[in-house]
From TrEMBL:
Coiled coil: none annotated. It comes from Romboutsia weinsteinii. This is VanZ family protein. The chain crosses the membrane at residues 14-33, 74-95, 107-130, 136-153, 165-182. Keywords: Membrane, Transmembrane, Transmembrane helix. It comes from the Bacteria. Pfam families: VanZ (PF04892).
Length: 426
C-alpha cells in the first residue's frame, strides 16, 4: 500500500518538474525574446537592434496607466504591469516547493531580484530590449506573492500529496488564464496570433531604402535643414548630432505617414502633401529623403512622420562646458577611442531614458584623452555585481567596454579627462 502511495507521489512530483521546466522556458521566451517568433529563435535568427534604460522608479508604471486611460485601454495597461508580477509568481511558489533553502521570505526576495536583474542586464547588453527598474520592482513583488501563496496553501494541506495535487490544479488554471489574456492582449507579440500590416499608398514612394533618414529642423530658401538620424528634441547629447541640408524644388513630392495601431493589425497610410502642408510640420519630425536616381543633386521624394514624443526643452553644451557622456567602445586607436554614443532623453520631472543604436543606427563619436586623464576599470558580472574596481591605463580599454566620460567638446572630438570603464565578464 505504501509503495502505491509513493508511486503516486512520484508521478505527481514528475509532473511538477515538467511544469517547472516548461515555466522556465516560457519565462526566457517572454522576457528575453518577446519580439521574436519561436521559429526564428530555434533557427538562431534573432534580430537585436536597440536597447534602452529607465532608472526612475515607477515611471514606466505611471506611463502605462496614463496611456491606458488616454486610449481607453486600461486592460492593456493592467496586463503589462501585472503581467510582470504574475510571470514571477510561479518562481516564488515552485522554488520553496522543491528546495527547502528557499522556504524563507528573505531568500525568495534575493533570488527573485537576482533573476530579474539577470534578465534586465541581458536585455540591455544583448540589445534585446529595455533595462527598467520598474521591472525589477514588479518581478520581485511577483516572487514574493508566489511565496505567500505557497505558505497559505501549505497551511491548508495536511501532506505532500495534496500539496502536489493543488499545485497541478493551480498550474492548469493559471496556464489557461494566462494564455487567454496573452492571446487577447499580446497575441501577435508572443507569436500566438498573426499581426497583419496593411499599407495604403506606399506604391507612390520610391521602392528602395531612403538615401537619408533624419530629423527635421526647418526650411529656408528652398533648403530643408535637418539632423542626420533620429534625434529627440530634448536629448542631452543633441550637440553631437551631425547637421545637413537638402535642396527641394517644384518637382519634389511630399508624403506623410499615418499609423493606426489596432490589436492585431497596423494600418500604415502614406498621404500626399502639398509643399505648404509639409511646411506646417513641427521641428523634430522624422524625415526620409530620396534623391532623383538620374540626378543625385535633386530631391525627388520626402516622407515625414510625427516627432518623437518628449517633454522638456533641448539641452545644448558650449565647447568649454564640462560634460559627461556614455557609450560603448567600438574602436581603439593611438589617440583614443570611438564610442557608440548612448543618448539621454530628459523629461520635465528629471527622469531620463537612455537609448543606443546599433549598426547603421549607431551615433559614433571620436574621443581623445587629456594628458592627465584618469582611468578607472570596473570588472563585473552580467547580474550587475562588481568583482573588482581598480585604476588602469588607456591601453587597458577594449572594444565592447562601456565607458562613462567626463570632459569637454572640441569641434567634432570629445576630450575626456575622467574615464570610467565597465567590462562584463563571464
Amino acid at each position: 500500500m505504501e509503495n502505491k502511495v509513493e508511486k503516486k507521489n512520484s508521478k505527481g512530483r514528475y509532473i511538477l518538474y515538467i511544469i517547472f521546466i516548461t515555466y522556465l522556458v516560457v519565462l526566457f521566451k517572454i522576457v528575453l525574446f518577446k519580439y521574436e517568433p519561436l521559429a526564428d529563435i530555434i533557427k538562431g535568427d534573432i534580430g537585436a537592434d536597440f536597447r534602452s534604460a529607465n532608472l526612475i522608479p515607477f515611471k514606466t508604471i505611471l506611463d502605462f496607466f496614463s496611456i491606458g486611460m488616454k486610449d481607453n485601454s486600461l486592460l492593456w495597461a493592467f496586463s503589462n504591469i501585472f503581467g510582470n508580477v504574475c510571470i514571477f509568481m510561479p518562481l516564488g511558489y515552485l522554488l520553496p516547493l522543491f528546495f527547502e533553502k528557499f522556504r524563507s521570505l528573505k531568500n525568495i526576495v534575493i533570488v527573485a531580484l537576482a533573476v530579474s536583474m539577470f534578465f534586465e542586464l541581458s536585455q540591455y547588453f544583448g540589445y534585446l530590449g529595455s533595462l527598467d527598474i520598474d521591472d525589477l520592482i514588479l518581478n520581485t513583488l511577483g516572487g514574493v506573492s508566489g511565496y505567500l501563496v505557497y505558505v497559505g496553501i501549505k497551511k491548508l494541506t495536511s501532506n505532500d500529496k495534496k500539496l502536489n495535487q493543488v499545485t497541478i490544479i493551480l498550474s492548469a488554471i493559471a496556464c489557461i488564464g494566462a494564455f487567454t489574456i496573452a492571446r487577447e492582449q499580446f497575441g501577435s507579440l508572443l507569436g500566438l496570433t498573426n499581426h497583419e500590416v496593411t499599407t495604403i499608398g506606399q506604391e507612390n514612394l520610391p521602392q528602395r531604402e531612403p538615401d537619408i533618414m533624419g530629423t527635421y529642423l526647418n526650411t529656408k530658401n528652398e533648403k530643408i535643414y535637418m539632423y542626420k538620424g533620429m534625434v529627440a528634441e530634448n536629448s542631452s547629447d543633441i550637440d553631437f548630432s551631425e547637421k545637413l541640408n537638402v535642396e527641394i524644388n517644384d518637382k519634389t513630392k511630399f508624403y506623410c505617414t499615418e499609423i493606426d495601431e489596432l490589436k492585431n493589425e497596423s494600418i500604415i497610410t502614406y498621404k500626399e502633401l502639398s509643399k505648404e502642408e509639409f511646411l506646417k510640420y513641427e521641428s523634430y519630425s522624422i524625415l526620409k529623403v530620396w534623391y532623383d536616381e538620374s540626378d543625385n543633386g535633386i530631391v525627388d521624394t520626402i516622407e515625414v512622420s510625427k516627432k518623437i514624443p518628449t517633454s522638456g526643452s533641448a539641452v545644448t553644451i558650449e565647447s568649454n562646458e564640462k560634460k559627461e557622456i556614455h557609450g560603448d567602445v567600438e574602436e581603439v586607436n593611438n589617440r583614443g577611442v570611438v564610442i557608440n554614443l548612448i543618448t539621454v532623453q530628459e523629461s520635465e520631472n528629471g527622469s531620463s531614458i537612455s537609448v543606443v543604436g546599433k549598426d547603421e543606427h549607431a551615433n559614433l563619436i571620436k574621443v581623445e584623452f587629456s594628458s592627465d586623464a584618469k582611468f578607472t576599470l570596473n570588472i563585473g558580472k552580467a547580474n550587475g555585481d562588481i568583482i573588482e574596481r581598480k585604476d588602469c591605463k588607456k591601453e587597458d580599454i577594449q572594444t565592447k567596454d562601456t565607458v562613462a566620460l567626463k570632459g569637454t567638446k572640441n569641434g567634432e572630438v570629445f576630450i575626456a579627462d575622467d574615464i570610467e570603464i565597465t567590462r562584463v565578464v563571464e
